[in-house]
Amino acid sequence: MHAFDVLGDPVRRRLLELLADGERSAGELGAVVQEEFGISQPGVSQHLRVLRDNGFATVRAEGTRRLYSVDPAPLREVDVWLERYRRFWTQRLDALGTELARGKRERRMRGGTDSPADAGHADAPDTPETTGRTGGRTGAAPSEETAGGR
Amino acid sequence: MHAFDVLGDPVRRRLLELLADGERSAGELGAVVQEEFGISQPGVSQHLRVLRDNGFATVRAEGTRRLYSVDPAPLREVDVWLERYRRFWTQRLDALGTELARGKRERRMRGGTDSPADAGHADAPDTPETTGRTGGRTGAAPSEETAGGR
DNA sequence: CCATTGTATGAGTGTGTGCTTATATAGATC
DNA sequence: GATCTATATAAGCACACACTCATACAATGG
Q1: Residue at A77 is within a domain
Q2: Which portions of the sequence form the region Disordered (chains A, B) (predicted)?
């Protein structure tokens, strides 16, 4: 399973977000994620397994608890892959965002026929709304990126 | 479809890699990717559609050709998400890598009870080998990250 | 106008993956 | 040692998605 496949699942992304703040027991993680996504305990456990098996998390036992921590190695891989695109938004138009960049590129390449009609709106491509699950009550501010159905 | 889902597919990642160097026609992209992954033209076209539909690529028509370009917006989103983990490998042990970081964290947190038996192995989670497809002949050096079966 | 090239879409199929319920294991507590 | 909590695994099912082949559409050239 590739790093991006692992990150493809919103539950796993959320788990990693929670782990970003430090070590957490499977139970704590489960509580949050079950609440937010409405999945069962085994469901969460399986996601944790995927994180383990793919090197995104390490575990240590403390009594009957399993304490999970982030292992950043695969995330760093992702970061490396992304490096080649970073110039697209780091290149002097940092603040103006990619919308501008696109418009500019298009203008540069063609006669200028294209309608600049929609040039003025946000850069969020698909307006990340709330998650579509059952118990949509967020208890601890999941990142916007995490939201979005499977 | 979430950004990470789009990037979950190795063919799409490869297409984006090719587009990183600049505009490319669907045909050029197809040639490379069909060779490397052994998939059909419609297959490639469908992947391009996914990239389009999710804002990773923009197209312009030139005659009968379709010229694709990267739209970095969703990639930037991914970059933003990753930001919270960057400290894990930017934090002074840049060169030494995460292996050290993990060892250090473990040492810091436990009394040393747990078996340190498997503590010494590599950080590559699944040794990125050649892609498992049919026509495995690489013509233009796909990034290691791209490899890995679906 | 017909053929040819370049590309997209539609329909149908198989497989992987994410879920569920049920159960196993292991440490804590009485 | 029985029971309770914490977590993992097993088995089974469903659905999404990445393929395939066939076909449509659009521009270009004879």
Answers
A1: no
A2: 100-150
